[in-house]
Write a structure and sequence with these properties.
6-stranded mixed β-sheet; about 280 residues; 2 domains; 8 helices; about 15% strand; alpha/beta; elongated; single chain; Rossmann fold
């Protein structure tokens, strides 16, 4: 390999330094160094026996991770809402009031178009999807992991407003309540559900998704993704037919970049929106 070959290799590889070794036994090796330097603008050194070279610390390259937009929409007014029931996993339908309110919301709320559309597998969510998006948008699948809190033996039991306040105060404090899914377990399920959905969609080339789900899940997702404590949970509003637009990334774990209520969706956000 000639000095020209070495210089050309340096130009292609762009190393921090060229170290010349296995030189011919005849001639002045420093002349070879000068010849390479004349053709390549970089550091050139002669290798020596037992020579050590201290390499600069490698700079970690910052990877620009793809962001993901997740739209969480709460189902419409259901039979469970009407009768004040603990209807977590109970499959209660929408009421006629709920269907009417969703049709009215379609006239004033611009629901963003996303790459994929999913729903909790419970009928009140599936019916909400049809009222808000059907028949123009096809449901891509059901996601049971986006169900409401499992109330266990409390399912379908009626309660007063005071009963619900007492229940959620104890539940958020971590007190065990019969066989009800705990706040800690529910929070973990919600984060796993969001991360799994994001991973599945990005793997299929989609950077956004809509999920029709439940108030408890929406409140828990917003609380957990903001790294807030359970005391903030009651402050999160999730009215029937509304929800949040969340911008997520997977940098250093699941990270929330921004959030805003669905009711504030702007004209710019709603390009190609569903009415």
């Amino acid at each position: 390999m000639t000095s020209t070959d070495v210089a050309q290799l340096g130009c292609k590889a762009a190393p921090g330094m060229l170290l010349l070794s296995h030189l011919p036994l005849y001639g002045d090796p420093h002349l070879l160094v000068d010849q390479v330097k004349a053709q390549w603008n970089g550091e050139v050194r002669l290798a020596q026996t037992l020579m050590t070279v201290e390499l600069p610390a490698l700079k970690r390259r910052r990877v620009c991770l793809m962001e993901f937009q997740l739209v969480l929409v709460r189902h419409g007014y259901s039979l469970g809402n009407e009768k004040s029931l603990f209807s977590g996993w109970s499959d209660v339908p929408l009421t006629e009031r709920g269907r009417r309110e969703l049709r009215e919301l379609r006239q004033v709320i611009r629901y963003p178009r996303t790459g994929r559309y999913f729903s909790s597998d419970l009928s009140r969510c599936r019916e909400t999807f049809q009222e808000l998006y059907g028949p123009h948008i096809v449901l891509d699948g059901l996601r049971p992991e986006f169900r409401e809190i499992c109330f266990g033996s409390l399912e379908n039991r009626p309660g007063t407003q005071e009963d619900f306040m007492h229940f959620f105060r104890a539940w958020l404090a971590g007190h065990p309540i019969l066989d009800v899914e705990t706040y800690k377990a529910f929070r973990r399920r919600v984060l796993e559900a969001v991360a799994g959905l994001m991973r599945d969609c990005l793997a299929q080339g989609s950077q956004s998704a809509t999920v029709v789900t439940h108030s408890g899940l929406i409140k828990t997702a917003v609380t957990a993704l903001n790294h807030w404590g359970p005391e903030q949970w009651p402050q999160i509003e999730a009215p029937n037919g509304l929800g949040y637009i969340l911008t997520l990334s997977a940098e250093n774990g699941l990270r929330l970049s921004s959030q805003r209520p669905l009711s504030t969706c702007s004209q710019k956000d709603a390009v190609g929106a569903i009415y």
